[in-house]
């Protein structure tokens, strides 16, 4: 049986974590905050070690922690942007589908995993509660697994329901999980969402990312019937659509009757709705981003965002203004899955203009996160550009039509001057 600690203040992580180790924990609302706070407070006594970060919900990690810790992540989202700008975070550009391999035995192999779970049920099994995602893949190869058993974590059905004996150390806590409230929706975001919603039919299965735009798209779907969810995350608005009977998953070709996601990313409203709800299932990244699973899901609509898109459909989702702010992430996994899905629709949505800068560009200012061969629908507040199977000339025409009107002459001039990729 594992060592059990009932007083978190007595936890000495230097007993379990060695200098040079790689430590991995659940991201976003799934962060075991008592464990991560203790880890960073005790970092000097442990010695130099590495932490793999996901998207932060709590502001646990700060730049000053870089004195003894080397941070690495797949993304520059949220608080990671500050860490990257201050030079204490490095980024591994990676498709989300490859993270389990990297964490299980690749270059990011986890030595120690910190995990947050709900108390064991009558069957003796714990629920991962808020995040399965990539963290469960890191556990089998880890030397030490430390579990924060938090009685405020919802009990959600999952792919992996561990027993207490599966952990090396158990720390009992009672604290509210980190939350990620919905972001404010602007008029511009609302117009983009309306165009995206026009592409979503009854019976479609949805994948959506993080931020105000996915929330806005979901809020436009209250008149649809029998929608489904197969996504990296489940948010508050999706839960509201489930409660309203809009998302039923009744017409899914895979996992019928259940919303499948890697993690819950929202507020207490979502957590309460998911607690004990058999219509929600958390699965690991190996499943949620599996290309064969995605291709088998009929009418899969993948909705992803971008920093900028060029006139041929190349997408930069990582870098803005020279700063790492996004990720390669799961966009390519889901866009390709939607392309292979019967009746599927791969969508990239973004504002045509933001902060006085055109987001439809002649040449990307950052890396190519999604190749133009994977481009499907590009959506802005000015409409929809369907690039599927289209030659370069047609792509440029359609992209010009969804660019900001003030920017179209500039972009046309770039075409005339051969200033666009061929």
TrEMBL record:
Keywords: Hydrolase, Transferase. InterPro entries: AcetylCoA_hyd_C, AcetylCoA_hyd_C_sf, ActCoA_hydro, ActCoA_hydro_N, NagB/RpiA_transferase-like. One of its GO terms (biological process) is acetate metabolic process. GO terms for molecular function: acetate CoA-transferase activity; hydrolase activity. Residues 15-160 form the Acetyl-CoA hydrolase/transferase N-terminal domain. Coiled coil: none annotated. SUPFAM superfamilies: NagB/RpiA/CoA transferase-like. Residues 266-413 form the Acetyl-CoA hydrolase/transferase C-terminal domain. Gene3D superfamilies: 4-hydroxybutyrate coenzyme like domains, Acetyl-CoA hydrolase/transferase C-terminal domain, Glutaconate Coenzyme A-transferase. Belongs to the acetyl-CoA hydrolase/transferase family. This is Acetyl-CoA hydrolase/transferase family protein. It comes from Amycolatopsis echigonensis.
């Amino acid at each position: 049986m594992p060592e059990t600690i009932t007083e978190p203040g007595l936890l000495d992580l230097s007993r379990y974590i060695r200098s040079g180790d790689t430590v991995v924990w659940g991201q976003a609302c799934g962060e075991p905050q008592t464990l991560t706070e203790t880890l960073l407070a005790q970092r000097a006594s442990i010695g130099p070690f590495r932490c793999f970060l996901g998207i932060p919900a709590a502001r646990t990690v700060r730049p000053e922690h870089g004195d003894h810790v080397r941070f690495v992540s797949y993304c520059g989202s949220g608080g990671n942007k500050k860490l990257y700008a201050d030079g204490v975070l490095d980024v591994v550009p990676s498709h989300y589908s490859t993270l389990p391999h990297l964490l299980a035995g690749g270059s990011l192999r986890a030595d120690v995993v910190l995990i947050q779970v709900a108390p064991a049920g009558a069957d003796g099994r714990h629920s991962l509660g808020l995040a399965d995602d990539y963290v469960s893949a890191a556990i089998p190869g880890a030397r030490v697994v430390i579990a924060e058993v938090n009685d405020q974590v919802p009990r959600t059905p999952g792919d992996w329901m561990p027993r207490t004996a599966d952990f090396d150390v158990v720390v009992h806590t009672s604290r509210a999980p980190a939350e990620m409230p919905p972001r404010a929706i602007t008029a511009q975001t609302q117009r983009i969402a309306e165009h995206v919603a026009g592409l979503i039919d009854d019976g479609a299965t949805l994948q959506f990312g993080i931020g105000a735009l996915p929330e806005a798209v979901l809020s436009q779907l209250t008149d649809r019937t029998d929608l489904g969810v197969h996504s990296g995350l489940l948010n508050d608005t999706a839960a509201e659509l489930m409660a309203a009977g809009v998302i039923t998953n009744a017409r899914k070709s895979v996992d019928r009757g259940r919303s499948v996601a890697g993690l819950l990313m929202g507020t207490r409203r979502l957590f309460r709705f998911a607690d004990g709800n058999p219509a929600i299932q958390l699965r690991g990244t190996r499943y949620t981003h599996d290309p064969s699973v995605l291709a088998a899901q009929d009418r899969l609509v993948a909705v992803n965002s971008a920093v900028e898109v060029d006139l041929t459909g190349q997408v930069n989702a990582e870098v803005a203004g020279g700063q790492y702010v996004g990720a390669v992430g799961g966009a390519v996994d889901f866009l390709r899955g939607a392309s292979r899905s019967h009746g599927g629709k791969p969508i990239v949505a973004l504002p045509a203009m933001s902060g006085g800068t055109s987001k439809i560009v002649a040449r990307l200012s950052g890396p190519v996160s999604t190749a133009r061969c994977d481009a499907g629908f590009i959506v802005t507040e000015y409409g929809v550009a369907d690039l599927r199977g289209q030659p370069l000339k047609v792509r440029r025409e359609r992209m010009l039509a969804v660019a900001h009107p003030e920017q179209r002459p500039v972009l046309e001039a770039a075409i005339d001057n051969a200033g666009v990729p061929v």
